[in-house]
Batch of 2 targets.
Target 1
Amino acid sequence: MPKPDNPNCHGIEDCPNNFGPDAANYEKSRSQYPSALASDVLIAAALPLNASLLEIGSGTGRATRLFTGRGYDITYIEPLAEMATVA
């Protein structure tokens, strides 16, 4: 993750402080998002069922999993291979 005090950190390859190398531990130790979060987002967005969703920077898929099984087609993009593997 970019550090606010590092103006030279423009992407994951420039910034050594990302979770990629420790993706499995990140997934294991990070708390889950509340399931109501997905409901709140979907209500606020007023999306019809079967809408296609795009998530950019999905990490290990924690938020993505909140939306699965709710009738939406989800495409997610994760630039860190280690995080995408866990997802």
Note: The longest strand covers residues 52-56.
Target 2
Amino acid sequence: MNINPKLFILPSNEVSKYGLENLTYGSLTIKGINLLVKTIKKYKCNNIYGFDIGCGDGELIYQINKLIPESKWEGVEISDHRINCQERDVHIWQGDILDENLREYNVIHVDNLCFDDVLENKLEEKVIREFNGLYITYRKPINNYFIKNSIFLESVDTETTWDSHIIHYYFI
């Protein structure tokens, strides 16, 4: 898997609008993707309709679709620039995660390491209100509303392009 270097060259208007921290980008390695897929299959065997929040150019979606071809995945990315870097045949769009409807999906992956607590709490509250399924997060949730209304499944140390990160799996 080759990461597109264009993903890291951000237009100044996006950095000004969203902040560099909110545009931080990393990805899973092939080893990390294989472990993610193995864990998804452990908890959700069939009829996977997944949503990748902060999908970049959609590479993760593309890789998951190769490994679970019977699944369907879509993604949202705040950076229009990263959406325009798309080179794969995947369904992704530019948008704000808080404006998306999560009701139709049964697996959500969110690489939320760079989200601040305020945004993360809003996302977790939205997930609890709108979502039913397997929720995959890189940030250990601290939102009490989320913790009380979800079932913790496990944490898995997973290889990324930065280093390894613990990914937490919940059932909502």
Note: The beta strands are 49-53, 72-77, 91-94, 107-110, 134-137, 151-159, 164-171.
